Amino acid sequence: MTRRSVLVLLFEGVQSLDVTGPVEVFAGAGRAGGEPYEIRTASLDGGPVRTSSGLRLTPDCALSDAGPPHTLLIPGGEGSRCPAPGLIDRLREYAGRAERVVSVCSGALLLAAAGLLDGRRATTHWALCAQLAEEYPRVTVEPDPVFVRDGPIATSAGVTAGIDLALALIEEDHGRDIALLVARQLVVFLRRPGNQAQFSVQLAAQTARREPLRDLQQWITEHPDADLSVDRLAERTRLSPRHFARAFHAETGTTPGRYVERVRLEQARRLLEETADGVEQISRACGYGTPEAMRRAFVRTLHTAPAEYRRRFRP
User: Fold this and answer.
1) How much is the CA Rg of the chain, to the nearest whole Å?
2) Which residues form the HTH araC/xylS-type domain (predicted)?
């Protein structure tokens, strides 16, 4: 087995960024002073493929001619939802020869179809998580994280999450300094922790149709340190607390309390990532009141304490 080689599976309808994003990260390790990866691409029959955007990619070889890799990368794309005949069987056979198997976006559907995610935790693009859970009930689907590592198999969310996962693997292989240099070359974060949410609270929640509720959503985001109890929020919309709670849930798909909790957590995470403010100062600015209250919120949702969360972002 070639040490720390990377083989990328290509197929008709593959998402080009799912391929090139992680490949650029792995290629950057050698430029940053780490041991270079041997990066190759393969299609089922060795022939060229068209990406979902129309680009033509020519692989290095057929999958059957590729040697066992250290890392097998399975990208996503439209072709992962209707795979070519024989692709799943060949993937099932070939994946057992790799030390670790990595998927990006809807590539998780291919891994699940091959039975490689049975009994494991996994994620994929948020829009496909329900499909993954419904079609493959033996897979424990986690819809929120950017990526999930379960033993030798790692799955990631959409497109840029493949970059985060590749950076995490470089850090595992070569150490934090090399991963940091690669991230700087690509002008991205060292990496988002795997349990970071795939998208912001305002994107995750529906935008209310009625102007008072829509304006309130924005006001909550701008004032996480305010009194955001249901009674106070209802006053701002001139509705009774009961009517307000029902209307908010109907139009946003979540309760006022849950929305506030997520806004505060997102704001706290941003301040931990981008500022040098202390945990006590951040807890007050985000409406938690005390560092202990903020710590409990982090542990409950992210399974990590604020100090550990910051350490992952700041060298």
Assistant:
1) 22
2) 214-312
219: which 2 tokens? 């006001």
Hunting for tokens 């190759």 — which residue is that? 40
Per annotation, catalytic residue among 61, 82, 105, 286: 105
> For the segment 257-283, what is each residue's pLDDT rounded down to a tens digit?
999 998 999 889 888 877 889 999 999
Query: What span, in angstroms and rounded, lies between the C-alpha atoms of 174 and 25?
Result: 13
- Using H for helix, E for strand and C for coil, what is the string for 61-116? EEHHHCCCCCEEEECCEHHHCCCCCCHHHHHHHHHCCCCEEEEECCHHHHHHHCCC
Question: What secondary structure letter does DSSP report for 126?
Answer: G
- Per-residue pLDDT of 91-114, as tens digits, reads 999 999 999 999 999 999 999 999
- Helical H segments across 198-278, by residue range: 201-204, 211-222, 230-237, 241-252, 256-274
Q: Which two tokens stand for residue 120?
A: 């494991």
Report the C-alpha gap between 109 and 130 in whole angstroms: 11
CA 35 to chain centre: 26
Question: Tens of pLDDT along 193-243?
Answer: 544 554 444 444 556 667 788 889 889 988 999 999 999 999 999 999 999
Tell me how far apart the alpha carbons of residues 104 and 17 are, in angstroms, rounded to a whole number: 10
61 is catalytic: no
pLDDT on residue 57: 97
Helix or strand run (H / E) with residue 61: strand 61-62
Question: What are the structural domains of the chain?
Answer: 5-186 (3.40.50.880), 201-313 (1.10.10.60)
Whether 44 contacts 87, CB under 8 Å: yes
Residue 38 gets which letter from DSSP? E
